[in-house]
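Exam revision sheet. Question 4 asks you to relate a sequence to its structure. Input first:
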Amino acid sequence: MKGKILRNLMKFFLAGILLMALIVYAVSAEAKPPIRHYYIIDLTGPYGILVPEIFEGTQDYYRYINEKGGLDGHQFEISWGETGNMMSRTWSHYKRYKQAGAQFLALFSSPDGEALKKTMERDGIACYNIGQSDPQIYPPGNIFLDGCSYADGFGAFLKWVKKDWEKKGKAGTPKVGIIGPDAAYGRAATEPGIRFGKEIGVDVVGQEFAPVVPIDLTAQILRLRDKGVDWIWLQGLSQIGTVFIKNFNALGLRGKIGIAAFWWTMGTEMLRRVPPEMLEGYIFSTYTYMEVDDRPGIKKLSKLRMKYRGKKLVEGYIRGFHFAEIVMGATRLAYKAKGYDGLTGENYIKYGFERLKDYRGEFDLGAPVTVKLNDRRTSNAIRLYQVKGAKVVGLSDWIEVPHLYPPEMAKYFGK
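Answer key, structure tokens:
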């Protein structure tokens, strides 16, 4: 009888220890507050054809990190506000962000970044933007760009044009014209491109403006043709690209004038919109690898998207995932230096982004990230891809981009 009582007491004692351990664990887990990031995005409106796949990649990266335990036990909570590309909504969501207790702000729009730039600097808020127009980062402030700026990406293409021209032994000066909307991203490449073209011997003849969602671009194409351009650069999204390609082919210009585009007029997206024979030879730039690249990170991400979404990997998803991976790199560094309570705008800049050195992330989806003094770009290189035989193939290795800051900004970069 005595032995039975002792055994029961031992059972109660062990059960008590186990219960206390569970309580301590639960309290400990509860004591780790979430890290909150807020996204202002435009899932609808004219850019609704592009943003949803990108944001899926971003959301899935956070899901992946949370499934691995978050950051030092802190889970990530993502709040977001949808603007429909309406500036009034952008300002409304910015006010909501400030009230939400989030530690970091992310944007998906160049116009939003340009509009909020001074206000965020006044409010001490750090921001990362996948819209890469140049005025956001000059003078250097609180906004960092995913990749390089639109002007710098165009400059890298001009370098390639010059090299290709000389390689083929052509005489004279290559001429490049631009078609894009009268918007922050649409006009971003023109003035810096003209300036840089003069330095390296490429004549950027100017820009023909187009509506964000055009009906016909024949007149714009003919005006550039009459200026004797060798290349037309598309600084607009696939709505412009689709109409342009159809008009361009109807005019019989394919094979006579080269076509290239910035990274938001993606070749894979265009192949879904127009017959592949119309796109033969089409070139576009990117600051990340593509789904066609034979790389471990791309293969791993392809499996992850199929697991999470039941879909094949596409470029927009890669960009969104890469975007979040850079944000996480800065978050880890700021957290390591200042802890959870130190995840402020100032510390995100000083101890997060500005300490990114040769950062690749677990998936290694782009050029290594090194942020230099006063530089708000997170990439100094782009790659070119081309449509051949109805497929996207690599055209170049990484091309270093020029830093095409406005001349009056030279003082920030030791020039």
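Marking note for examiners. The longest strand covers residues 381-388.
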